[in-house]
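Field: sequence (string)
Field: structure_tokens (string)

Example rows 1 and 2, in order.
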Amino acid sequence: MPQLNPNPWFLTMLATWLAYSLIIQPKILAFTTANPPANKKLTTPDTTPWTWPWT
């Protein structure tokens, strides 16, 4: 089964992952977000129980 032979594509895959890990990934992670998350005060929701008319 020729698809199980890693010889022609293993070095290509290895070089691609090394390029991604060492070159491309640090450049992508260096970007800052356009809208950084703000520290908002957490509001607690109103938890009053529902009054059913038949109880």
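Row 2 begins here:
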Amino acid sequence: MSYRPDESNDQIYAEGAWLQGAIVTGVLYGVVIVLSAMCWRSLWPRAQSHGTGYKKNRFFLFYVAFLFVVGTIYVAFNSQITQMGFIDNRLYPGGPGAYEEATSSPPLNTAFVVSDWCADLLMIWRCTVVYKNTRIYYVIVGLGSTLFLGALVTGTLWLVIVSTPAQSESGWMSFSLLFPYLCFSLVINIFISLLTVLRLLYHRRRISRVLGLGHGAIYASFASIIIESAAIYSICSLLYLIPYTLNNPISYAFMQLLGEAQVIAPLLIIYRVSEGKAWTNHSTTLMEESAIRLRRPSDFPKPSPPSAPLNVEISFHQEITRDDSIRSPKSSHPMEPTEAHANHDPFGRAV
């Protein structure tokens, strides 16, 4: 006897994608908890002290706490809407997958967009740090500000539109609503990530030419490139948008994962910054100084040829003086009488 519901294979596949996405999202939330605790443990002592950069550490501590709250809200309401679709409204026309697609949760949508803005801001900031003291620094700042302003406007419009009653007819996952916003956000992610990676690889190449390939990996290892450029966020965005354009229900799963990936990527960056492993504002200057101090021998100017040898003659003249206050040792040879008479000790012996 089969207990399979009276639904098509496509419907069951879509429902499975929704459910599996919710489960994996809970796993990623566990990663968020661990990373948040690691960041707090690293930032708290520095934020409590009044040493160098303590204000920045306090801001990062607040940023981590805010991201943790946003990620918690996201996973909580994502679990709630999954329960409503698969349990509370299981008889919804089209099944739980149709209910999930047609239902809007304002707290869930707000947490998703806010975490996206936070991730975009941190990525743009990291890119400006990497390009500090370069000729195109102000170009990067202006470009990043423009892109973020576009993400802010499109994200706000999407939140307003999906909060209206009319959204229930087309669904909160409508191509005309969510897709343009996520495409704009993805452009920011890919472009800013590419700029950051190019800069890191450029410095790796410079250091490798001076010190060797092994030393260049310190400044731009594979792990640092992935974290510094927030490639995790960009990859998850592509995993959602590509299936979504192909109308594949697997996009529903990646859509849920994207909400937590937007929190994980900036937390990884902040942890590297707090541990002193990330690129800082002084890294470019130090790289220039290191390149000068550690140049190859062939890069230094050749020494001038030695001049003609200088011959110096030094003469020593021995001068002998005698101190009569010091008695000389006894002599084994007799002295002249006159000399013995002149030098006679109290005992009558000649000296």
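free_text_note (row 2): The chain is about 70% helix and 0% strand.
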